[in-house]
Amino acid sequence: MGEMALVESKPRSASVRALTEAKVLEVNKETFFKYFVSNPKVVWEILKTISARNREDLNVIDDSYQEIRKSREKYRKVIDSVSDLIIQTDQEGKINFANKAISILGFDVFDLIGKNFEDFYDGVLSETSLAHILTRRVGPRTTTDLEVSLKVNEQSSLYDICHSMSFHITATGMWSVPQDQVMRKDTQKEFQGSLVVAKMEKHGGYRLV
Q: What is the pTM of this model?
């Protein structure tokens, strides 16, 4: 137990607790390597054990990745079936995710990826408004029911009818830690961007040409 700590000169990665009374033999690094010199076959056995462990770890990682991929696919299907616009931005306000509902404005999802949210907003966006839309806040302090106007794609046929549409948005900050820990001052956390959900006004919300 703990042989890798001797090989790597790093803290051991696991601990063990005896279920019954036991006698143990402590082996220091010098004794460990002297034993290798006089018993070279042991090195081969240890290498086989390490290889088997690595193979098991890789299988676990691969299985976990497949589960994550499946979960993401299910999540994407759910998100794309929602009629509300769902937009995610990074720390700098660049759009890194949008669902297919964005087509209501004549855009394809890939038209917006990497673009500044400000460029998608219709009108002059003040610093205060931008701070509310691309908010860092979570929980009860998030932005709710804020009316905004978003541009219609100039290259789409819809642009001949209207140049923008009005929405009511809800926005929340996204962090590297769970929401209940964000408000704690002693928590190490990193702001990762904002999640914006835009619901179209019930009575149209078009700005006709």
A: 0.61
